[in-house]
Specification:
With 94 residues, the chain is mainly alpha-helical. It is built from two helices and two strands. A two-stranded antiparallel ribbon has the order 1-2. A hairpin with a 5-residue loop joins strand 1 and strand 2. The radius of gyration is 29 Å and the shape is rod-shaped.
């Protein structure tokens, strides 16, 4: 192999390496987006895949308020009023 062919080989490998370095972040981003999309689809159906590959029901979503109050009645002589975090956040955002 003479010098001209070696220089051509090194030039081609350099261009190929730069192409890989330029394309790699895009490919990683596409793979990540597909993984997130798959997780969102699984969350919409309410099922998740266990490590063994079988489907198991997803954990129920937590809510800040329950439909039926399960707390004991508050002391009406208490000087503090009842405020929930959602009304505070809504008022602050406005």
């Amino acid at each position: 192999m003479d010098t001209t062919r070696m220089e051509a080989l090194f030039g081609a490998l350099t261009v190929l390496g730069l192409l890989v370095l330029m394309v790699l972040p895009a490919v990683i981003g596409i793979v990540r987006d597909r993984r997130i999309d798959r997780q969102l689809r699984q969350a919409e159906t309410g099922r998740t895949t266990a490590p063994g590959g079988r489907d198991v029901p997803a954990a129920p979503a937590r809510t800040t308020r329950s439909a039926t109050p399960s707390r004991a009645p508050r002391d009406v002589t208490s000087p503090r009023t009842s405020r929930d975090a959602t009304s505070h956040r809504t008022a602050r955002a406005a």
